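Throughout our pipeline, every protein is held as a single compact record rather than as scattered files. Nothing more is needed to write down the fold, since each code stands for a local backbone conformation. For reference, a complete record is included directly beneath this paragraph.
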Amino acid sequence: MDHLAAMRPRLVTFARLQLRDAAAAEDVVQDTYVVALEKHASFEGRSAFETWVFGILKNKMLERMRQQKRFASWQFDDSLSQDDALDALFQEAPFQASGRWQAASRPQPWGEPDKVLENRQFWQALDACMIALPENIARVFTLREFMGLSTQAICKEIGVTETNCWVILHRARLKLRQCIEKGWLAH
């Protein structure tokens, strides 16, 4: 089980980023260890061991988020109609009135995707940018991009409309892109 112990820092870091609570992160990592140890004999090797353990962690984090949902109130703006919500997106700072990128806000090229994903500084910048996101936006983005939930499942989970979910995801991507460009590409 040495390989399980070696994974601990990555598991805790991932859980902290998603849950934004060090104690909760430690709890879900411990719960993950319990399941991994109990079910180790049933691991069939269809995926890498680390992938399997991270899958357990994701499920434990979803359970925790569902428990927290009972105690938290989500405050998303569902008052906008679908058309108004989409129009509002393209009236924000990076866009012109026509819905096109303003020259100063156009996305910068990040290089070859495979090389970017191998760059440790990129992952550090992404982690820092995820922490900087507002909690509700980070939660929706995490459920979609890290946990792999469909937008329908996210809407059911947190009680927002599908249009609002797409708006939140769009804002998260814009904020992350802007943050990464400032914190990673600028250096």
Observations:
- The chain has nine helices and no strands.
